[in-house]
Amino acid sequence: MNSDLNNILQNGINLNGIKIKNGKIPIIIPQSMIVFAAHPDDELLSAGGTILKYSELGTEITVIVATSGSGGYVDNKSKDKISQTRKREFEVVSSLLHSKFIYLDWNEVVINRENISYITNLIRELKPQIILSPHNLDTHRNHRNLSYIVKESIYHTATGKAYGGAGKEFMPYAVYFYESPSCKFEYVNGSIFVTVDISKYWEKKREIFYKAYSSQAEMLNRVIYWAEKTARLRGYENLCEFGESFIPYTEYTPLRILLQ
In sequence order, what DSSP letters do the residues of 74-115 get, joined into one string? Predict the structure, then answer.
């Protein structure tokens, strides 16, 4: 065998400081990540495997939950009960996902100056290297509105001084939109997405659903059916068993860390 080829097979190849061996590119591990969720369980449904994977790798992950998810109540009494149940679920999921949860307690996700100011300054304070967000084309208004709030907030942190930002300019290394039952990537025109291999974490993600969200038993099977079907499809496309996919958003933040 040619000595140069043998050396590459044994020791890998170095491309611009990144060592590639056996055809595998090493994972770049961000120090911090924010996951924005309009409702409780959005983070687990769309990015749970990715959260588990990067948390295990050492990334400090914060999940920002906008609403309590109590919009389906039939009277005020049931609304309060649902809200209390959701807060207990937050604690369970936070522990199982090894992440910090911040609960905003908004009734609805409304695009206004107050909410944009709050999220802008939260991003400045936490300085996440990676941001995961719903897609702005998501059919669900709360997902969609949260995406627009996050997009404008990133614009302010990266390019301007609005909302008390003088001297606090900050640009994350990457921003990604995640997939959901109300935003399937095959229907997003021209979408180019990356896929994270979550094969090692799929069963844990599924287990967390049943442990944390037992109050939503009526919809659990339907939600998990979508999650498993989609994860298998994305895994198949990525030559692995299960995957979660994300669309890079690069309008104001060049892509400097690739999720994988």
Answer: SSHHHHHHHHHHHHHHHHHHHHHHT-EEEEEEESS---SHHH
Both tokens of residue 71? 């919009």
Kindly state the tokens that stand for 60.
């400090």
pTM of the model: 0.88
Question: Is 71 within 8 Å of 40 (Cβ atoms)?
Answer: no
CA atoms of 64 and 100, how far apart (whole Å): 9
Could you tell me the residue ranges of all domains in the chain?
25-248
Q: In the chain, what percentage of residues exceed pLDDT 70? A: 85
Rounded distance between C-alpha atoms, residue 37 and residue 199, angstroms: 23
DSSP 160: -
Which CATH number describes the domain made up of 25-248? 3.40.50.10320
Q: Is the pLDDT of residue 11 over 80?
A: no
Residue 157 is encoded by which pair of tokens? 């942190």
3-class secondary structure, 233: helix
Residue 139 in tokens: 């059919």
In Å, how far are 23, 83, 134 from 232, measured between CA atoms? Answer: 23, 33, 21
